[in-house]
């Protein structure tokens, strides 16, 4: 079991390929998540109530949610992965151990 902390060193600086053809970590991680040919479906419902405080803390008070469906492979800790997009293209990704990752484009 692993517990995450704010600015967790095990995740800071990791690089993620986030494209129409794949979602995959470019640096090794403890997970083997890899999603080939992801499809993103906009969800019409707001973020779950228990996730909203974390999203606000990351600067996403009213994000748009997108479900991630993989043609092959899997992504994230649950059966249906979700990514949240905020103003200016900021992304938040619920991850393992109840963490939410804030993704910055580079």
Q: Count every beta strand, where a strand is a DSSP E run of 2 or more residues.
A: 7
Unreliable stretches covering 5 or more consecutive residues = none
Structural class: mainly beta
Distance between the termini: 31 Å
What's the SSE pattern?
Answer: EEEHEEEE
Tell me, briefly, the overall form: globular
Q: Provide the residue-averaged pLDDT.
A: 82
**Portion of residues in helices?**
under 10%
Supply Rg. 13 Å
Q: How many separate helices?
A: 1
Main beta sheet: 7 strands, antiparallel
Strand content: 35-45%
Strand line-up in the sheet with most strands = 1-2-3-4-5-6-7
Describe this structure in words.
The protein has 106 residues and is mostly beta strands. It is 6% helix and 38% strand. It is built from one helix and seven strands. It has one helix at residues 52-57, and strands at residues 16-18, 22-25, 34-42, 64-74, 81-85, 91-94, 100-103. It has a seven-stranded antiparallel beta sheet with strand order 1-2-3-4-5-6-7, with no helix packed on it. A hairpin with an 8-residue loop joins strand 2 (22-25) and strand 3 (34-42). The longest helix has 6 residues, at 52-57. The chain is globular and about 30 Å long. The mean pLDDT is 82.
Features:
mainly beta, 106 residues
Short description:
This protein has one helix spanning 52-57; strands at residues 16-18, 22-25, 34-42, 64-74, 81-85, 91-94, 100-103. It is mainly β. The protein has a seven-stranded antiparallel sheet, with no helix packed on it.
């Amino acid at each position: 079991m692993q517990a995450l902390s704010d600015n967790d060193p095990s995740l800071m600086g990791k690089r993620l390929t986030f494209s129409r053809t794949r979602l995959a970590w470019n640096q090794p991680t403890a997970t083997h998540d890899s999603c080939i040919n992801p499809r993103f479906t906009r969800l019409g419902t707001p973020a779950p109530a228990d996730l909203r405080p974390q999203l606000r803390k990351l600067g996403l008070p009213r994000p748009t949610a997108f479900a991630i469906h993989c043609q092959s492979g899997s992504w994230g800790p649950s059966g249906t992965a979700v990514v949240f997009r905020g103003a200016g293209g900021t992304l938040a990704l619920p991850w393992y151990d109840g963490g939410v990752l804030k993704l910055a484009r580079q």
